[in-house]
Amino acid sequence: MTGADDRGVPGRPAAAPVPAPRAAEPPGRTRIVLAEVSRSGSRADRTRSELTQQTRVGEALVRGLVRAQLALALRLSLLVLIGLGGLPWLFAIAPSVGRVTVLGVNLPWLLLGVAAFPFLIAVGWAYVRLAERNEQDFTDLVQRPER
After folding, report:
1. CA neighbor of 138 nearest in space, from 82, 60, 29
2. 3-state SS, one letter per residue, for 5-53
3. Higher pLDDT, 8 or 16
4. Residues with Cβ < 8 Å from 95, sequence gap 6 or more?
């Protein structure tokens, strides 16, 4: 039986047509430059792998970053606590300061109601700037080439 005869036989599926072979396409060009491979990147790659694999060294590096960020947050929180929390103490200890008026408004109201907001914005701006510096120092440490 030939392939033409098989098509007409009941109970047998028809054979699918075979596609014509295509011409082989040339493979994409790959550029290999040995000068790009350097030993200086090996330490940075090793440190990055330490971080991603969560080894002891990677955990120590991340713990150092977290400690630096926590220390920064605590220092600035202490600054806010002393700056704003100290004002009621000042007015309680020295009542004459609490009775001073500026442009017809009591000084405590000006300090706690108006001046507190620029103070908090400045502390927030300083925190963001210093936290980004900590993160940049961490990134520089991780990517620093071996000497």
Report:
1. 60
2. HHHCCCCCCCCCCCCCCCCCCCCCCCCCCHHHCCCHHHHHHHHHHHHHC
3. 16
4. none
Query: Are 126 and 76 in contact, with CB atoms under 8 Å apart?
Result: yes
**Identity of residue 84:** L
Alpha carbons 130 and 54: distance in angstroms, whole number: 26
| 43 within 8 A of 145, measured Cβ to Cβ | yes
Give, to the nearest 10 degrees, the angle between helix 56-93 and helix 116-143.
160
Contacts of 121 (CB under 8 A, 6+ apart): none
So what's the pLDDT on residue 74? 95
pTM (predicted TM-score): 0.57
**Start-to-end Cα distance in the chain:** 78
The first and second tokens of residue 44, run together, are: 């940075």
Tokens of 4: 């033409």
